[in-house]
Fold this protein.
Amino acid sequence: MVLSRRSAILNVMVDAAEKAGRALVRDFGEVEHLQVSKKGPADFVSTADLKSEKILMETLSKGRPSYGFLMEEGGEKKGTESNMRWIIDPLDGTTNFLHGIPHWCVSIGLEKDGDIVAGVVHNPINDETFYSEKGTGAFMTGRRLRVSNRTTLTDAVIAMGGARPGAANHTAFMAEQNAISPFTSGMRRFGAAALDLCYVAAARVDGFWERDLNAWDVAAGALILKEAGGSVSELNGGKNYVYGRSIVGANAPLHADLLKKLQAASGQDAPKVAAAT
């Protein structure tokens, strides 16, 4: 087992995520009493989201007062250090949370000059914290993470994000699912992209893809997956997966196979840009 010593910036991030997580756990036990509103079909925001985001802002601002923010609920807030900002999801997996399903997390990414340089994903229910800094490897509560060594889809369990019926990408998602599922050992739909990416990093599942994502869904988890030895790209093969609205992640052999099958299902050409590793 390889244990990591966290840097000062990671300590700030982990502290913020754990504080927000403790508040969320208290709210998780009182889900029926939460005030909930709808941003759109199957798209919820609760008082728990807003409370968690407030805790994250206050704690991160105390640690690094000059950094800006890009947030799911609060939008963008400029900092005096214009090249540094936090990308935060105060509650990834809100639908799970509101239905009492214990699979959700707090996600914090740190962006420097347009590049994600640190990430923390905290799962309070399991008391698991995934984290990484660029170039230093990926860890879960001190233990080094590595992606799985499975090289064929027939041996692999693949996680995916879904699309509700009627959504613009629902037809594409169903075509992709139908193209992948016959070749795998199993498919999983967990409902929290940040955790899904970390599960690939921890070799709990072997790959993941999803469409219609935002930067706060993937910034931290994608870095953790890359630092665990994984390959990450957009569905079109591009490298702008943080802002490109889609993501595919796995070890290198499975990533190539997944990307090929996903693109064939949606009628795309083979990728013109290599995946980030």
The chain has seven helices and 15 strands.
